[in-house]
Amino acid sequence: MPTPFTIRPIAANDNPAMAAIIRRVMPEFGADGPGFAIHDAEVDHLYEAYAQVRSAYFVVERDGQVLGGGGVAPLENGEPDVCELRKMYFLPAARGIGAGTAMMRHCLAAARTFGFRRCYLETCTSMQAAQALYRRSGFTPLRAPMGGTGHFSCDRFYLLEL
Predict the structure, then answer these.
(1) Domains of the chain, with CATH numbers?
(2) What is the pLDDT of residues 123-134, one digit of tens each?
(3) Do 127 and 88 touch, CB atoms closer than 8 A?
(4) Which position among 3, 4, 22, 153 has the lowest Cβ density within 10 Å, counted as fewest Cβ atoms?
(5) Which pLDDT value is given to residue 2?
(6) Paired residues of 159 in beta bridges
(7) Is pLDDT at 62 greater than 70 in this prediction?
(8) What Rg do the C-alpha atoms of the chain give, in angstroms?
(9) To which H or E segment does residue 128 belong?
């Protein structure tokens, strides 16, 4: 059975599609107020933001349409062996078809290639399907945030030993 999607590195011309996806998906989960990633400057420039050292961003595509994405980068104000799983959001069309699990594999493989030993992420209570994916992927909950991402409205934190 053919895979219903492909995962590839982000291209510069994917920036508008990913910015639109982030701005559509985050409000769906009540994550559009102050202290959420929707307000990060990089939302409009993901290709450039993840063209940095030890960073990668991937998109999920089906029939030429970008349906979501996710990436890894060093944890801001964190220890050098810790990366952060960042900006992983999918349109409803990409949910329930294995795209999240496949994206997780891509991101964690990239993190290992970059020499990270731990992967951190933060999310919010309302993103229950995402939290289930994180737990299935081996992430364990933390009591408090790590680093200094500026996402003060996130209330769930996870860490994975790579």
Answers:
(1) 6-161 (3.40.630.30)
(2) 999 999 999 999
(3) no
(4) 3
(5) 54
(6) 120, 140
(7) yes
(8) 14
(9) helix 128-136
Work out the percent of the chain whose per-residue pLDDT is above 90: 83
Retrieve residue 7's tokens.
């995962």
Structure tokens at 32: 């559009």
131-135 own/partner pairs: CB under 8 Å, 24+ apart: 131/156, 131/158, 133/100, 133/101, 133/104, 134/158
> Could you give phi then psi for residue 86, rounded to 5 degrees?
-130, 150
C-alpha distances (whole Å) from 81 to each of 52, 77, 116, 120, 142 are: 16, 12, 5, 11, 17
Distance from C-alpha of 141 to C-alpha of 127, rounded to nearest angstrom = 14
**78 against 30, higher pLDDT:** 78
Positive/negative CA dihedral, 142, 144, 147, 148: positive
Residue appearing with tokens 């933001």: 49
The 3-state secondary structure of 10-51 reads CCHHHHHHHHHHHHHHHHHCCCCCCCCHHHCHHHHCHHHHCC
